[in-house]
Amino acid sequence: MADIRKLEDVVSLCKRRGFIFQSSDIYGGLASCYDYGPLGAELKRNVKEQWWKQMVQMRDDMVGIDCSILMHPMIWKASGHVDKFADLVADCKACKTRTRLDHLQNAPGKEDADINDTSAKVCPKCGKIGNFTEPMEFKLMFETQMGANVDDSMTVYLRPETAQGIFANYRNVLDSSRMAVPFGIGQIGKSFRNEVTTKAFIFRTREFEQMEIEFFCKPGTDEKWYEHWKQLRMQWYLDLGINKDHLRFRDHASDELAHYAKACVDVEYLFPFGQGDWQELEGVANRTNYDLRQHQRGMRSVTRWIENDRDVIKTPLVDENDKWDKGPLAYFDQPNNEKYIPYVIEPSAGADRGTLAFLVDAYDEDEVNGEVRNVLRFHPKLAPVKAAVFPLVKKEGMPEKATAIYDDLKGHFNCSYDLKGAIGRRYRRQDEAGTPFCIVVDGQTNEDNTVTVRDRDSMEQVRVNADQVKSYLRDKLDL
Ligand code: GAP
């Protein structure tokens, strides 16, 4: 079957039907920032809810937290972000466009040039070749000032990942819950990065939401847990209806690994950018015990901060002479009477990037009565609206009966009610919204109390007793 997914079609449907709008649209827009409209907000909420349900709620070895976006600046020193979270960029001397070095293409005839050789690169904006400034570091963390008084105000960062909030609370969770290693902490929340190049609608933006897990395990069991989470995360996308031909794993090569990682694999999705583009949907990393060890060092250095020496953030952290196991973040394994700093497996997904993948994968077109039908074939668990209720016509008590059914259903599922326009048009509107079922009250309803229930995908209609619509939907939607 031909691949009909096109980003332009999805973007246009998203705007037309109120899934996603450009942020600050009425002021001409704010680049790389997006707002979710009524249908989009429901869709993204369902993506996050499914993640939370499967990853946190249903697992005995997981708990969830919700940390503040602003955190102590020393957290970002210890994590390595203050010193290392930067992209290498170069500016085009002609048009001044700044581009990430790893996003610059080699000019024709210079395909074999080294990744850092700017003399071979083409400016993506004006096309000039080899006309760049020296590569320089561009810091990706957004900074802001906290505190009203000049004396005690300080620079804080908008978090560039939710992960560090979990590491910073690992001890609190251990001390306040009955969790024991191996266990994990999940979090969903906003992250911010001053990305040099943004990309393709909501794929890479400067404000985005992450769904992250830090899973703490005994050193030596980390490879087993890495494999476990890798398979589980792939299965999550498959279970929610993503076509398996559009998903794959890509292992990071050793020179690609982040400074903290022992191994990393991306779950990639075949996004419909250009001719099709395999891009990271989520990463699963073995972060070793790097972060907890770093935070132990940060906790020692912070005494200087407390004494008002803010320059501590610019100097190396206090070394612990490798006595990690005696530190405050070491874990005491009581049954085995041993102490260690747990290793961490981190499945890190983007809620917006996931939402985009679910949208483009659900997009389909078919033909009904000689007309093209746009339909979003969402998994029912993700569909923004689960059922729409219509009276066939605005008379013979049909609106009253349909309203009663709608009022009964809306406490259980997100539903909509529509009485405007021809029935075919109303079906089309719901198909574009990805609504799995439409319920119609018609002439026969008065006679035998049955309504039609139409399936979005097969477009088949069955008659169901009005009193049983709720249990019928419950069964079919499997929520
Ligand atoms: N804690 C690890 C971490 O943050 P990452 O690969 O930088 O790892 C994880 O980010 C996921 O977050 C990505 O796979 C992607 O889904 C999402 N993500 C990262 N940067 C993003 C951006 N600028 N816009 C949208 N999503 C982003």
Task: Give keywords.
479 residues, alpha+beta, BirA Bifunctional Protein, domain 2, Rubrerythrin, domain 2, Rossmann fold, 3 domains, seven-stranded mixed sheet, five-stranded mixed sheet, 25 strands, 29% helix, 27% strand, globular, binds glycyl-adenosine-5'-phosphate
SSE topology:
Blueprint (H helix, E strand, L loop, with lengths): L6 H10 L3 E3 L11 E3 L1 H20 L4 E4 L7 H6 L2 H4 L1 E6 L6 E3 L4 E2 L14 E2 L13 E4 L3 E4 L7 E4 L5 H14 L6 E10 L14 E11 L4 H18 L7 E5 L11 E9 L5 E10 L3 H17 L24 E3 L4 E3 L2 E8 H12 E6 L2 E6 L10 E5 L6 H12 L5 E3 L5 H11 L3 E5 L1 H6 L1 E6 L5 E5 L3 H9 L2
Parallel strand pairs: 3-11, 21-22, 21-23
Antiparallel strand pairs: 1-2, 4-5, 4-8, 6-7, 9-10, 11-12, 12-18, 13-14, 14-15, 15-18, 16-17, 19-20, 23-24, 24-25
Helix pairs in contact: 2-8
Bound molecules: glycyl-adenosine-5'-phosphate.
Glycyl-adenosine-5'-phosphate (GAP) binds next to strand 12, strand 15, strand 18 and helix 8.
What would you say about this model in short?
This protein has helices at 7-16, 38-57, 73-78, 81-84, 163-176, 222-239, 290-306, 351-362, 398-409, 423-433, 443-448, 469-477; strands at 20-22, 34-36, 62-65, 86-91, 98-100, 105-106, 121-122, 136-139, 143-146, 154-157, 183-192, 207-217, 247-251, 263-271, 277-286, 331-333, 338-340, 343-350, 363-368, 371-376, 387-391, 415-417, 437-441, 450-455, 461-465. It is an alpha+beta fold and 479 residues long.
